[in-house]
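Thread: quick sanity check before group meeting

JM: Hey all, I'm pulling together slides for Thursday and realized we never actually wrote out the predicted structure for the chain we discussed last week. Dropping the sequence here so it's in one place. If anyone has concerns about the input, flag it before I start.
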Amino acid sequence: MALPRHDTLVTYPDGATTSTGTVVHVQPLGGGRSAVLLDRTAFHPVDTAWPDQPTDRGVLRDGDDVWPVLDGLTGGIHDEALHVGADLPVRGGTEGWTFVVAHVVEGDAPEIGRAVTVEVDAAHRLALSAGHTGCHLASLALDSALAGAWTKSPPLDARGAPAFDQLAIQRSRIVTGGSVDTYRIGKSLRRKGFDPSVLADLAPIAAELDAQLAAWIGHGGAVRIDRAADDLSARRTWVCALPDGDVSIPCGGTHLASLAEIEAVAVELRTSEVEGGLELEMVTRVTLRDSH
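JM (edit): ok, ran it. Output follows.
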């Protein structure tokens, strides 16, 4: 069977942790592993271009036959060739490419044409979704807390504050129940007008972050993912209701459905000297309410 010509349809943006799909292609990856492509899946893969959120955990199932999914990768098809994970040379949405979720299994893979059920580890997904929602909230709060550190007018974030997160981010990693974000404060950021001396005392910044996050969580606003289509490469946007209005951030990850699910968000800040400047690390931890 030829490689698919349509993106995998994904249901995880709505929070789905189960789905049924048809196997449309199986490609050996070496080492006894294969990439299984389905026409539809609830399985969230690692985004090759911005791999901040880890893959889901789970299985493919058909009756008594079960295939543990060892990894979930983003794949791209071009000129009748499938490129998976680190071998994918383009970003999602590139014209002329088809983008797919590759479910990596070991041993005998399900046959092409077979209908299988995707079962995602819901507890693990919830912990990652909490971490990703908390990450966005913390980045917005950090932008706000550092708004007075600019001597020029830089680009603004979704709430209208100077976009420190966007301009300084080097690495972002979503973990279960939290995130770790690393920012670089070097010559480039200083030329844009950022004064790093404000980071000499992190205590007042952390206090402002705590107060802002507590206010947003107390509001309990709804969270959703907007998208134009269910295709894997379709643009997706995180939308969160905050007391001063909805905010929107482009995002391909998974999230909670409401801030009311969160008991608290705790943020730790620390700096370290690096060649040419400073690094600021923000560690975010999300505690969910007992209902979870």
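AS: nice. The mean pLDDT is 97. The radius of gyration is 21 Å.
JM: adding both to the slides.
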